[in-house]
Design goal:
The protein has 359 residues and is mainly alpha-helical. It folds into 2 domains: 3-128, Tyrosine recombinase, N-terminal domain (DNA polymerase, domain 1), CATH 1.10.150; 142-271, Intergrase catalytic core (hpI Integrase, Chain A, Orthogonal Bundle). The chain is 48% helix and 5% strand. Strands 3-4-5 form a 3-stranded antiparallel sheet, with no helix packed on it.
């Protein structure tokens, strides 16, 4: 087995998602093609730096802007993982990478604050890592989101969009290649009527996540099961209606139907915007920790970085209010009869008076 194949096998063994495995494999293969005719054994930090410079500039693309910082940083992560694998593997068999340093520079991670007016620190891959601009999540006006849910073309899609709007879960997919996750990855057995919950497989298939669902969704589910799903021979909750009738509903089919409805209503929206809408409302009304639990984020910092922000106008407004209160505050001065803070001896007070010009 070649190095890349062994690396991919290790990622699978470690339980990495199919998306991560595919992205890392393609990234390493791209690097090896760029490296030819040189050998992997010849790779140094300088070589990695040359590659990242060309990769980031998009030398192999017909674009003037190059690749996005996130794409560059993901490629660095893939290469760092690949060379870490080679070093660990060869240390057990005295191979070419035994005892060598990882040629992808690494450094101590710094806390990401994502606060307006402050620079994010460099972290991870040191000077090779690109700063990623903070992009605020795009959400929908709640009334627009409700309208979109009500105007879907079939009961199945109304039930799916309503579930997205009521729970804030990812839309996900049901894929033979990448597995299932999110709302589209629900099975019939994931619906618990007694507890009024659904159990969603989180992104990357890392864990199951039970989330409560409000009462207005359940009649829609019953109507869908009775009138549209039928006795489809699959465990999937959502099934196709036309060419893929009776088979698990895939994201491309659902997204096409959703996009057509949004266009008909003159609304620019994507299914994932429902998650942002719910998330922002949760943070604003219930706080970060409640939002984290419902959204299924592993770390509360993920929720905070995405949704707990204060814009510059809000900060200016707050500072103006602080200044107003400071100006209007009435400070009571207590006359103690003492010129100085401490009860100095008379000779000390005389000396201080001379220095201060009181005499």
């Amino acid at each position: 087995m070649d190095d890349v194949g062994a690396f991919v096998e290790r990622l699978v063994m470690l339980g990495r998602s199919s998306y991560t495995v595919r992205t890392y494999r393609l990234g390493v293969e791209h690097f090896i093609r760029w490296l030819a005719p040189r050998s992997l054994d010849d790779v140094t930090r300088q070589v990695v730096g040359e590659y990242i410079s060309e990769f980031g500039a998009g030398a192999d693309l017909a674009t003037e802007h190059g690749r996005a910082p996130r794409t560059v940083n993901n490629r660095l992560a893939a290469l760092a993982a690949f060379f870490a694998f080679l070093i660990e593997r060869d240390s057990h068999r005295a191979g070419a990478w035994s005892g060598r340093d990882n040629p992808v520079p690494t450094g101590p991670p710094g806390p990401a604050h994502g606060m307006s007016g402050r620079d994010l620190p460099h972290r991870g891959r040191l000077e090779l890592r690109r700063r990623e601009p903070r992009v605020l999540a795009r959400d929908l006006d709640p009334s627009v989101a409700e309208h979109l849910a009500a105007e879907q073309v079939c009961v199945r899609d109304r039930a799916i969009v309503t579930l997205l709007l009521r729970t804030g879960q990812r839309v996900g997919d049901w894929s033979a290649e990448h597995g299932r996750h999110g709302v589209l990855g629900l099975r019939l057995s994931d619906v618990d009527r007694r507890r009024r919950t659904v159990t969603v497989l989180l992104k990357g298939a890392r864990d199951e996540h039970r989330v409560p669902v409000t009462g207005d969704w359940w009649p829609l589910l019953d109507e869908y099961l009775a009138t549209e799903r039928g006795q489809a021979d699959t465990s999937a909750l959502w099934v196709g209606r036309r060419q893929a009738k009776g088979r698990p509903l895939r994201y491309p089919a659902f997204e096409a139907s959703f996009r057509a409805t949004a266009a008909r209503l003159g609304v620019h929206a994507t299914p994932h915007m429902f998650r942002h809408t719910v998330a922002q409302l949760l943070v604003d009304t219930a706080g970060l920790h409640v939002a984290q639990q419902i959204l299924g984020h592993r770390n509360v910092s993920t929720t905070a970085d995405a949704y707990a922000y204060v814009d510059e106008k809000a900060m200016l407004k707050a500072l103006v209010e602080v200044a107003r209160r400071q100006r209007s505050a009435h400070l009571t001065v207590v006359e103690s009869g003492l010129r100085y803070a401490f009860d100095y001896a008379p000779e000390t007070i005389a000396a201080l008076d001379d220095l201060g010009g009181y005499r």
